[in-house]
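Minutes, structural biology subgroup

Action item carried over from last meeting: produce the structure token record for Endonuclease 8-like 2 (Panthera leo). EB confirmed the sequence was re-checked against the source entry. Recorded below for completeness.
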Amino acid sequence: MPEGPSVRKFHHLVSPFVGQQVVKTGGSSKKLNPASFQSLWLLDNQVHGKKLFLRFDPDEELGSLGNNSLPEPLQEGEKKEEAEDQKQALGPSSREINRSSQSLECVVPSGDNGLECLRGDTPAEGAERWLQVSFGLFGSIWMNEFSRAKKANKRGDWRDPIPRLVLYFGGGGFLAFYNCQMAWSPSPVVIPASDILSEKFHRARALEALSQEQPVCYTLLDQRYFSGLGNIIKNEALYRAGIHPLSLGSLLSPPHLEALVDHVVEFSADWLRDKFQGKQQHTQVYQKEQCPVGHQVMKEAFGPPGGFQRLTWWCPQCQPRLPPDEQEQGRLS
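Output recorded by EB:
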């Protein structure tokens, strides 16, 4: 699943088209009629966690053109695509944290609760036309070129992927959307405190969430506190911090929790920088058989009972699971 850094890169690809009119459309989407974008103007482009929001209007409104810089993030906990991550993150004390942090949170409009939004194939009458783009596991956006087949399919055919939506703009370029879930939604609400790539990321609130009495690998995927964080960042940050994925946050020392948040932010920022520089992503444990030191890496799906299980990679030697009494001693020290 594309995580925060990848979605920021997609935002960067879309930004040059803000202020341009759609002059031609195409694509295979059945949920959204590609022809409905004909003659609309792209007026804004915002990224919030793992989602991209594009504002379209029938008239050019140069006075209200939106953000072309990297935008601040939206609270993602209420959205459908993050629901499974949310299930993983709900611990026994999460309600208390939620109440104590109300000043930093907001609830997105009821029409944007995920299920309703994903049914929206046409924008509401009189409302701003915001297209919510969710990338699922393999979604992507291509600018001025189409994706090509990298290998033959199961039938042996070398067929190029078919974009779900193609938008051609008056300036001569085009955008192609692949494997994306798209639907009209209300205007997104910007809350920067949870975005791991935002300068306004609220570390204290993230640390409070991590200190819950539940495995830290669940909490890291909670988009209310770590918007944009996905499975790759989770695995890499835990390895770099030397923390076992199933360690209870309530038993980890403050320095350990601080180090974990540091690695979340640093790895995410490095990943984003590498994307803009065209460099290959460098992981140390994710989908690896050995860690950088040469130890055997373990792989298992972790998640709460009855909740969504996410594949997790860790090194049992570099990330030992300490007995509760040793963890408690570390907490007190």
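Discussion: Residues 4-185 form a domain with the N-terminal domain of MutM-like DNA repair proteins fold (CATH 3.20.190.10).
Next step: EB to file the record with the rest of the batch.
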